Amino acid sequence: MNKIKKSFFCQNCGAQHVKWQGQCNTCKEWNSLLEEIVSNESQQNWKAQNQINNSASNALQVSQIRESDETILDSSDQELNRVLGTGIISGSLILLSGEPGVGKSTLLLQIVMNLNFKALYVSGEESQNQIKLRAERIKSSSNNCYILNETLIENIFDQIKKIEPAIVIIDSIQTLKSINIENSPGSVSQIKGCTEQFIKFCKKTNIPVFLVGHITKDGQIAGPKILEHMVDVVLHFEGDRNNVYRILRAKKNRYGSTSEIGIYMMESIGLSAVSNPNELLIPYKEEFLSGHAIACILEGSRPLMIEVQALVSSAVYGTPQRTSNGFNSKRLNMLLAVLEKRAGFTLGTKDVFINITGGISVEDPSIDLAVITAILSSYHDISVSQEHCFSAEIGLSGEIRPVSKIDQRIKECSKLGYKNFVTSKSSKIQKSNNKTEIISVSKIEELINYLFG
Length: 453
Ligand code: TYD
Ligand code: MG
Hints:
Helix content is 28%, strand content 27%. The longest helix has 18 residues, at 188-205. It has a nine-stranded mixed β-sheet, sandwiched between helices. It has a four-stranded mixed β-sheet with strand order 15-16-18-17. It is globular, with a radius of gyration of 26 Å. A hairpin with a 2-residue loop joins strand 15 and strand 16. It folds into three domains: 1-40; 74-273, P-loop containing nucleotide triphosphate hydrolases (Rossmann fold); 280-452, 2-Layer Sandwich (Ribosomal Protein S5, domain 2), CATH 3.30.230.10. It is built from twelve helices and 23 strands. It is an alpha/beta fold and 453 residues long. It starts with a strand and ends with a helix. It binds thymidine-5'-diphosphate and magnesium ion (MG). Residues 104-105, 125, 171 line the site of magnesium ion.
């Protein structure tokens, strides 16, 4: 008799457990174990076949390895090309994750609708009609894009054979199901099994595949963590649904750097690339209020101007609130502690709120100086001129530290018409004929003296 073996898998990290328990031993997530079938005859046969195939490859010296005929498909989307490095590498498996409604399906549909070669868009979530409506909104009239509404992976491969597309989109990996795996779609074994099949498919046919991946409520990609290890590129599409800006970031890239970002705007006719973000992110205001400061941060190789807003008010309750939107709240606490210890500000009885406008979240520490400036400006209720731009990191002893690619940042500020660039005294700035005046400070006290006298 065919004996079915079952085991418990953590739906968060994919770890296997022999019995049910409340908390996963590996990732410590509560209530994430689910019983799944681990082996039956068909699965074992499938696994055995794979093992035989795998053992066929031989070890080779680097010089013996033939260069593969990797080609790069130009996606005609400059922002995506920038994030991926050069373009879509043939045979790559790319995972695109993001919150529901951020625009993953729109982005991928838009990309394939603008290609000059055949593409297959497989959706397990929306009907062909719904996708047609979306395609009409995007206003692209490509006849190269085939739409398929399917969730069974075997049927998808049949269609791929028939259509012979140059690129395949799967929306989403959590809806796929393989007949060889007897668990429901979205379970650890289905996600793992289907992704493995796509890896084999990509490497065998050299066709690039995009997988859409859902994320959990705490921002992780739903399904086993191993999914991120399996694919070649992990892209994350982020943005506030109430805001028009969307950012495409590479979290992992086997073919290039992960530091570049792509900026899009969600409009009524789909997503449009923002090639000059600095002119859009900070419009000139008649009156620049207190609590505002402009930071020059670096995202990838591009300097970006970001407006930081702070509100410091007396705490109503015993424990003051510290809330930050788009900025790491632990870093905010650190900056507040530095202000208290090194500059004598008693912020222990004050609520502090930080907001980065545009729905953008910033990790570059060069934003520190602008955050501190915005807090001080709100504290004193004195506005800082919007012709100033700040870029430096703050150390624990209150020292203002230099940041990378300073010349590039100054050049961008000068191009945008900022009069003053405030940075660390220890920055090594090359002499140039930029119109922007450099203001160097080495300690928070010097910054306070300069700004508020
Ligand atoms: P969608 O691509 O369905 O998101 P995801 O696949 O990540 O869940 O995007 C849905 C949102 O995008 C929806 O709230 C409406 C908005 N949208 C526009 O604003 N303009 C458009 O042209 C399209 C197609 C969508
Ligand atoms: Mg979608």
